[in-house]
Amino acid sequence: MLVAALGLAAAHTACTEEPAAIRIKTPRSGPSGSQADLGMPPFTKKGDTMQLKVSAFDDQDRYMGTAPVEWDVTDRTVATISQSGLLTILASGEADVIARTTETKAPVEGRLPIEVVIAERVKIVQPQVPEGERLELPMGEFLQFEAEVVNDRGEPIEDAPIEWTSTTYSASIDPDGRLEGRAIGSTEVTAEYGRATPDRLELFVTDWPPGKRR
Q: How far apart are CA 142 and CA 181, in angstroms?
């Protein structure tokens, strides 16, 4: 009977040695190993890397240490990952990083969602200037500029905040892209966003319109 009892105890111990859950940890992970609570920001540069690790937990959510896993990514056009857990960013998009245990009776899986937003270029979409013509604005008049940012796949990045500047005192432009003609002359309006290639548009400020001279 004693031998049988010892056998059952050993079997129970062996069962509890296997993790009930695993969590993928990043250098920014909190003590629980959960990245979701921290609001992981999107990756913004092709070629960025991040070393990922795995923590194992038992059926009572107690930390058990690390666990041997195999790594994968649901969309390999967005990122790739080595079997040592080194994540490499390739292109804009969304994907899940997957870790699966390799030394358990049944595979235990952990996932980490990632987002990649690589800003490629800025494009001024308003005002539109026909080819061969120049953009003019009388002094004291206003003109609304608009621009969009596209990623490395040619897709627009929603709600990307544009930084507007004007090269001379001939015009001033506010953070929302509203430009005012201030003095006769030319200026270059620039729309910028992060690492994206900026866009520029030349504008000529002309004399006051009839009846509006200050």
A: 7
- Considering the domain delimited by 119-206, tell me its CATH architecture: Sandwich (2.60)
Give the residue from 111, 43, 115 showing the smallest Cα distance to 71. 111
Considering the domain 2-116 in this protein, what is its CATH number? 2.60.40.1080
Q: Where in the chain is the domain with CATH 2.60.40.1080?
A: 2-116, 119-206
Q: Are 90 and 78 in contact (CB under 8 A)?
A: yes
pLDDT tens, position by position, for the chain (214 residues)? Answer: 444 443 434 444 444 589 999 999 998 766 555 554 455 789 999 999 999 999 999 999 999 999 999 999 999 999 999 999 999 999 999 999 999 999 999 999 999 999 999 999 999 999 999 988 999 999 999 999 999 999 999 999 999 999 999 999 999 999 999 999 999 999 999 999 999 999 999 999 999 987 776 5
